């Protein structure tokens, strides 16, 4: 067996995959104070209710929000910072970029909370911009600096010396020196966390790593102990923000790489679903209660950005490129000062939730509009665990939207849907058209509780011809954990003009990075023969301040091919290119090993008629209602086709099939929606 567990704010999703058996899916309430409790509870329920043996568990993969929540809630470790003499305030100075330049009183936009002034110390040492030692490490100043931080009762220390990414000798010695004096102190050094130029970004990444390292280490230790108590011998693995998994023991060395692992797991689940149907070009749209996460997958590989943001702060670590917008089922509809209908980003949340929940919510939400339009079955929402009240939904829309705009309730509900769909479609354009991809060449994968509800309008908006609905859209992130590859990445600075690079030096540096990754793969117990190796180079024009990651080989013509690929990539992303000289900034090696166990096939069921639940009216255009047939998804036989308009219901979502669209059940259980020609 393989088990994947994804921890969310409200629910913890558990999936158990068994060879030649149906997947088992389970949701349990999350325990925010200690997420390891809900993980343990979910596994215990899974084993007990289905009569499974813990000794049969071969893999256990976890997606965690602990590192992210530590930042959002300011619950990280008390962190100190050691910097080169004269550079202790880099963390506070930040960059000259300001998001609110017209505010009369500017607020700090650098994450000073990570290490305030009293918890920063300077050390006498200096490396030149070419990596030469200009001033030897003064160990007396190091002793005084670390004592100052210990007096402040720090639990973790970030060490960020100038130009250490070119020569880490002083950072390595500083860590060795400190560990001798304080062996229980957590230490992060910038030459390992983020070995690249730009002092502020490197300092921020290292400080975030140190800030979250004690919290994550203790959490994963508790979780590992819980698994051992449940007689589960499988190694605990965790999802990284780049979309690969690693053992928990290795992951705790660089916790900064675990930010946003949940959205990354959803994208990997979408990628795996698409591949099983022969689709490698995909746009994933994950619509939940408060947000919509959108990502693009090209040739079977999710786009990865070199830098992400946590709570508005830049964190330079590779992340799956997910565009998150404040549009979801709980997004509140409102009228602006100009009399225009708006939706979100404010959300009704879980409490009180949409008005139709009957928990005191008074604002009209997207879910309320879905009830009024007939899209949701009030008796079968979340498999009947939540009963929806259509009257409360109508009242909220009437009072807050319809009456102020002098339109009827159904028109107001349809307007809410059209506005939120337009917002999500714009988010899809940002990950596709803005980055040089034609969405018409992609299929859309809808996931999350509300994804299949909005899928076809989004596809129509961008002229996408195919929509894929996974078997379990609400728990696809947990499925993505099991389909993600084991992956390790190593990088280093390599500042050279492209026309001055010698191939042997390039190969030598990439081989060093490959050896680092292979060593980690061996620690994971991966057979080297199963590892795929990829090399990439961060490249820019000479004098340019931003770069593009270009995949490269190591052949005799790799330099000229790298330049040609860079020109082509620059043209696609930015709409222009020149024949100007280019420059290498960083080198990167990625080692990846895929996992073999696949999802189960759907068992044969009865006829299509057997899956019919009844009929109900829905409203897709303002002119008239459509009387449509509703189907139970679990009873749909593989190979069957449903012509729209129709509604397909399942415990974790509802799929709306519009006119001129049809849905076919794949052998593996996915619903494939296609526009009629």
Helix content: 25-40%
Q: Which quaternary structure do these chains form?
A: single chain
Unreliable stretches (pLDDT < 50, length at least 5) are none
First-to-last CA distance: 43 Å
For the CA atoms, what is the radius of gyration? 26 Å
Number of helices: 16
Under CATH, the topology of the largest domain can be stated as Nucleotidyltransferase, domain 5
- pLDDT averaged over residues: 92
The helix/strand class is alpha+beta
Tell me what the CATH architecture of the largest domain is: 2-Layer Sandwich
Which band does the percent of strand residues land in?
Answer: 25-35%
Shape descriptor reads: globular
Number of domains: 4
Q: What's the number of extended β-strand segments?
A: 35
Name of the level-1 CATH class of the largest domain: Alpha Beta
How can the largest sheet be summarized? 9 strands, mixed
Task: Summarize this entry quickly.
With about 675 residues, the chain is α+β, with helices and mostly antiparallel strands.
